[in-house]
Structure formats: structure tokens, C-alpha cells
Amino acid sequence: METPKKIAVAGGTGRVGHHVVNVLTERGYEVVPMSRATGVDVVTGQGLDEALKGVDIVIDAATGPSPDEKEATDFFLASTRNLQEAGTRAGVKLIVVVSIIGTDAVRGGYNAAKLAHEKAMLEGPIPVRILRAAQFHEFVGELVNWGRQGEDVAFVPKMRTQIVAARTVAEGLVDLATDDSAVNGATTEIAGPREERLVDIARKLMAHSGDPVQVLEGDTGVDPDGDPWDSSVLLPGPDAKLAGPTFDEWLAAEVPA
Fold first, then answer.
1. How many other C-beta atoms lie within 10 A of the C-beta of residue 160?
2. With contact defined as beta carbons under 8 Å apart, do 155 and 216 qualify?
3. Which residues contact 22 (CB under 8 A, 6 or more apart)?
4. Strand, helix or coil at 216?
């Protein structure tokens, strides 16, 4: 594939997408951020044809508003259909998708929706590359909030993860999108430099932020998967790309004390 001149980012104002836009801009690419804020809706298809004019590659970092399996699956199937169809009309040559490490080993919830997303994308006419990422540093606070029970206690899942910064994932997505040697249809992984327990890093975040909530490990009632989260399924495989910063480094640099 020739060097891309124009790259569109679905979810271009989101947690990962805005970093993707920044990385592409820093590397000199012409970038089209796509989100409802920019007048593009990947679920309804509104604005997609106009946004994709002249685009060579789409990086799909769009996420739905709900962790519910059905709602998330409906979102991803609709967005996939629209991106593949509008992308075909526009002559898009490649779609790169961000997914989750272990998404094919977890029974339900948001992970199942992401697996449906991967499969639907791979069945489309435009070639696809998938980057599965570990959980994001930026997601820890949200997990704590999901598990709050009053002001004093929050439960987080028993989870082993090799947590990674959203900016690092964005760099990995851009690398994958612009690498002529990468294999279409393949799935690769990216994670942080070391394994962590979610409860440990959640406590660090709360202490750093001055939040007195007591963070405990246990059943949050949010996700049905429980034990698999505490196994190795969310950890990267031997061929994964590992990159910093560590959670401690990210916390010191990015989160106000």
C-alpha cells in the first residue's frame, strides 16, 4: 500500500481517539477526526460519506455509551456496517480496529460485544487489522466509580492486567495503520511493561487523588465474568508489544494530586 495521505479516526474525540488524532498530526498525516462532535455519527451513518472523501485509512476507536452487552453489540455492529459500506464507496484501503486482550476468552459483557465487533469487521470488504490492548490507565477511575457503594467503599473486580496508557495504544494503532509489512486480517497485542492487580492500582489512584474511599476486591455485579478476570486471560501473549509508561509513572505525570 502506498504511503497514506489522509487518515480518518472514528471516535476521534474519545479516550483513545483524541490521542490517535494527536499522534497522526505530530507525524505529519492529514487527519479527519470523526465523532458526533464533528458532525459524524457512525451508528446512523450521518456525515460519513462526506468525512471519508479522499481517505486512505480508517482507525476505528469509536466506543458506545454503555457497557451493557446488547447495547454495546448493537453499537459495534451498526458502526461496522456503516464504516465498511461508506469506506467502500470512498475507496478506503484499510481499517484498523482497537480491541481488548482476552476478548475471545471472556463469556459476556462488553468483551463479548468487542468480539462481535472484530468478527463483523473481518467479514467486510475492506481489509482489517486488529490491535488488542490491555486495560487503560485512564479506565481505573471509572471502574472504581462503577463499584462504589456509598461514599466510603468501592469494590473493583479481581483482575490481573498489564495496564497501558491510552497514548501508548494510540501510538500502536498509528504504527499498525502505517506499517506496509503488517498483515491484513491479523490480530496483534499491546500492553504495559508489567503485570498489576487492579485493586492495588485503584488504591494508588484514590490515594494520589485524595479520595478517602476504601477500595476492596470483590464482586461488583457489573460484569458476569468474575473468575476469568483473575486468571491470565487479560494478560498479553509472548508476542505482544510492551511499552510504558508504568501506572506509577503515568499517575505522577498525568493525574493532579
1. 15
2. yes
3. 170
4. strand
